[in-house]
Write a structure and sequence with these properties.
Bound molecules: zinc ion
CATH architecture: Alpha-Beta Barrel
Number of strands: 11
CATH superfamily: Metal-dependent hydrolases
Strand order of the largest sheet: 6-7-8-9-10-11
Structural class: alpha/beta
CATH class: Alpha Beta
Radius of gyration: 19 Å
Oligomer: single chain
Order of helices and strands: HEEEHHEHEEHEHHEHEHEHEHH
Number of helices: 12
Helix content: 25-40%
Largest sheet: 6 strands, parallel
Number of domains: 1
Shape: globular
Length: about 350
């Protein structure tokens, strides 16, 4: 049994048949609820640094975030084969990507989306409880739409009603280049948000746009870190006219370099550690101590490289639930830190606790 537990390298270079086959790892037990339970000792109080609920907006209905659904419909089909030596999103089949696009579009229409309807507070908590996750950082999105762009307020209200406020670190969302962005974050701070999520690809702006400068200044003043979707993922559109200007290229790591340098007192969390641009992000973080990395999606090998090149202190675990089941992402960090409990605890919980000023 001991041999099996320590000899995990064989899992790094193989194809798993589907989500359930994570049970072959010595870290999890499959439960009757169709979810994994973490069986690793000494890993209490984990913080998931990157999660969302339903991301409906525009004319889309707002699903009841207090409902428990029997099944969470993740964007990655749970029966699709997957590997851990690649960027997580590369496991998606064309059909998965097409489903995801369909769902993302439906959530903006009055009909709504069968996927996002299941992305609720109790569904996330069900996974957190089994995986020893004490708190999740909740990241609403701001699309910059003229209406139906109030995800932050909707999340705040639902979390309040859920009675589970202590399980979440709630961020607000804004589009930094809008004229009212500064006033917006002042208001959000008053409502209790702990950081600001920005999404260059969804809100169509470049982070280095000088129009965003005053916004970053204000975030620094208010003590609100900026958490940014960051990096290319290999699914960018070649022809913006076919995708209504949504190319996926606004979040290119190159577009962050000036602003990260210009505001050394502002703490940045670059989400996904730059996706396929991980090398660039490592370099950026090496030269800028105000950069922290959410390791969501990175391969086991890249996680090890980041630990080695940067040290573990500014790396934080994140799942990007409900795009993926939380256990799928945990397995990567568990493999990368096999045999090093100190680093494992730092990246799973201690770094985030320090970052968010907990205890
Ligand atoms: Zn995300």
């Amino acid at each position: 049994m001991k041999d099996e537990k320590t000899n995990v390298s064989k899992f790094e270079q193989r194809t798993f048949a589907g989500f359930k086959s994570l049970a072959e790892l010595p870290y999890f037990e499959w439960t009757r609820d169709g979810l994994f339970k973490l069986t690793v000792d000494g890993l209490e109080g984990i913080i998931d640094g990157h999660a969302h609920f339903a991301t409906n907006g525009l004319s889309g209905p707002k699903p009841d975030l207090l409902l428990r659904h029997a099944e969470t419909k993740y964007y990655l089909n749970q029966n699709s084969p997957f590997r851990m030596d690649n960027y997580m999103g590369q496991n998606n089949t064309e059909q998965d990507v097409s489903n995801m696009t369909q769902s993302l579009l439906m959530q903006f229409t009055p009909e709504g989306s069968v996927w996002t309807t299941t992305h609720t507070i109790p569904n996330l908590i069900a996974e957190m409880d089994l995986l020893h996750i004490d708190k999740a950082v909740i990241l609403p999105l701001s699309y910059g739409f003229p209406y139906g762009d109030d995800m932050t307020e909707w999340y705040l209200d639902s979390i309040e009603k859920s009675g589970k406020k202590d399980r979440f670190i709630i961020c607000g969302a804004a589009k930094p280049t809008l004229p009212d962005a500064i006033e917006r974050i002042k208001q959000l701070k008053l409502k209790g948000v702990k950081g600001i999520k920005i999404h260059p690809n969804m809100a169509l702006f470049k982070p280095d746009d000088s129009l965003a400068w005053a916004f970053y200044e204000e975030c620094a003043q208010l003590g609100l870190p900026v958490l940014a979707h960051c990096g290319l993922v290999g699914k960018e559109s070649a022809d913006p006219s076919k995708t209504m200007g949504y190319t996926g290229r606004h979040a290119d790591v190159h577009n962050f370099m000036e602003s990260v340098k210009a505001f050394p007192s502002l703490r940045w969390v670059l989400c996904h550690s730059g996706g396929l641009q991980n090398d660039l992000v490592i370099d950026l973080a090496r030269h800028n101590r105000n950069v922290w990395l959410d390791i969501q999606g990175q391969s086991v090998e890249n996680i090890r490289t980041m630990i080695k090149e940067l040290g573990p202190e500014r790396l934080m675990f994140g799942s990007d639930w409900p795009f993926f089941a939380v256990a799928s992402l945990m397995s990567r960090l568990l493999l990368a830190t096999e045999g090093d409990n100190t680093v494992r605890k730092m990246v799973f919980s201690e770094n985030a606790a320090r970052f968010w000023g907990l205890g």
